[in-house]
Amino acid sequence: MLLRVGAVSLFVSIGAVAGTACSPRTREADATRPTAAIETNPLQGFAHLASGEWTTILASGTVLRETWRWEEDGRSLRVIGGSFSPTSDPWHEEQIFFVDPTTNTVRVRGSNSFRNGTFEGTVTFGEKTAQAQIDIDQEGDVRHLVRHWMFVSNERFDTELLEVIEGEGLVPLVSWTYLRAPSSDALHQPAESTTMNTSPTSQVSLPASHHGAWRGENRLWIMDPNKPFQSDGTIEIGDRTVRYTWSHEGKPQTGELTLKGQPGALQATWTDTFHAREPFTLHGFLELSPEGGVLRLFTTYDAGEATWGWIIELDFRDSAACTMRMSNVMPGLGAVPAVLLEGTR
Questions:
Q1: How far is the C-alpha of 170 from the C-alpha of 168, rounded, in Å?
Q2: Secondary structure in 3-state letters for the chain
Q3: Handedness of CA 212, 217, 218, 219 (dihedral sign)
Q4: CB–CB of 50/71 below 8 Å?
Q5: Of 29, 27, 76, 87, which Cα lies nearest the Cα of 55?
Q6: Residue 75 CB neighbours (<10 A)
Q7: Judging by beta carbons within 10 Å of its beta carbon (0-12, 13-18, 19+), is residue 61 exposed, middle or buried?
Q8: Contact of 108 with 123, CB cutoff 8 Å
Q9: Could you tell me the pTM of the whole model?
């Protein structure tokens, strides 16, 4: 499979050239704060973003990342944005969301490297939404922008940028989708995880709470992350097996994972009629928790002269959901979204 993805990010010049990537078929210090610290904070609408890195991808193949972190005061959020591509100009943005003590409103200030932009504005929250009214100065050219966020889940948010144009009103500029990036700490340092419970048994066993059938929407990213291919999907969880189905352009697709080993050091055999027609061997671990846990698997593969990677995650932490994520790890770019299947009973 060729994985082609595209998008545009905040205050970046609009327009990009489609890029290509491959598939196996051929997180910094803890940013969370105690719940009590944010329960009454006007910034709590952004609280779930401050626990990891978020990515979206331009059509050129450039990966745009946002990392949200609480400041030491627990009353402001710092957001660092940047692009990673060996073929594009570097781009950097920094934002600070804070509470104005005189009005108790949420404000944002920041700057980015596109036309030396500096900006500030006011943020309001709705139910699973947020909106910022922003004035940005780009080398003396002042523009009035509006940014919308829609929090689809704890793993994804959709966002849109619009501009106030005299005589035309509010004009949409661009929209894109951000997905939570897998934690590099969790992937590469499982033995040091303070929350990992490797179970008293020597044989891995997926959480019994999630055994059985799940159904939901499957999303596949090939070109534009704003327009993923969508289809009905299923996941069937067994003690040591995961089977799933979906479709692409009307053609049914299936996949299967078979696990063996210890929860803290396990092996999986993976086949997929679209991504991995020949069996692949992945390694990883099952991080157990009272809520269920997370299965994390990863492998590498050769794509031409480069070494690429593939990550599969099964999330069992929500008793009412079973989520499967796949990410492609590109040289110079890192993990980018490939598949998201969100199942419910």
A1: 7
A2: CEECCCCCCCCCCCCCCCCCEECCCCCCCCCCCCHHHHCCCHHHHHHHHCCCEEEEECCCCCEEEEEEEECCCCCEEEEEEEEECCCCCCCEEEEEEEECCCCCCEEEEEEECHHHEEEEEEEEEECCEEEEEEEEEECCEEEEEEEEEEEEECCEEEEEEEEEECCCEEEEEEEEEEEECCCHHHHHCHHHCCCCCCCCCCCCCCCHHHCEEEEEEEEECCCCCCCCEEEEEEEEECCCEEEEEEEECCEEEEEEEEEEEECCEEEEEEEECCCEEEEEEEEEEEECCCCCCEEEEEEEEEECCEEEEEEEEEECCCCCCEEEEEEEEECCCEEEEEEEEEEEC
A3: negative
A4: no
A5: 27
A6: 17
A7: buried
A8: yes
A9: 0.56
Q: What Å distances lie between residue 139 and 82, 114, 166, 174, 201, CA to CA?
A: 20, 10, 20, 22, 63
What residue has token string 């910034």? 43
d(CA 344, CA 242): 15
The rounded distance, in Å, linking the Cα atoms of 241 and 41 is 43
What domains sit in the chain, N to C, each tagged with a CATH number?
2-180 (2.40.128.20), 184-344 (2.40.128.20)
Collect all residues with Cβ–Cβ distance below 8 Å to 105 and sequence separation of at least 6.
Answer: 42, 99, 122, 123
Residue 106 structure tokens:
């949420």
Residue-by-residue pLDDT tens, the chain, 345 positions: 333 223 333 343 333 322 334 667 643 333 344 444 444 689 999 999 987 788 886 655 567 788 999 988 778 999 998 875 444 557 789 999 999 989 989 999 999 988 899 999 999 999 999 999 999 999 999 999 999 999 988 888 889 999 999 888 899 988 888 888 765 444 334 333 334 444 445 689 999 999 999 999 999 988 666 678 999 999 999 999 999 999 999 999 999 999 999 998 999 999 999 999 889 999 999 988 777 889 999 999 888 888 889 999 999 988 999 999 998 887 776 777 889 999 999
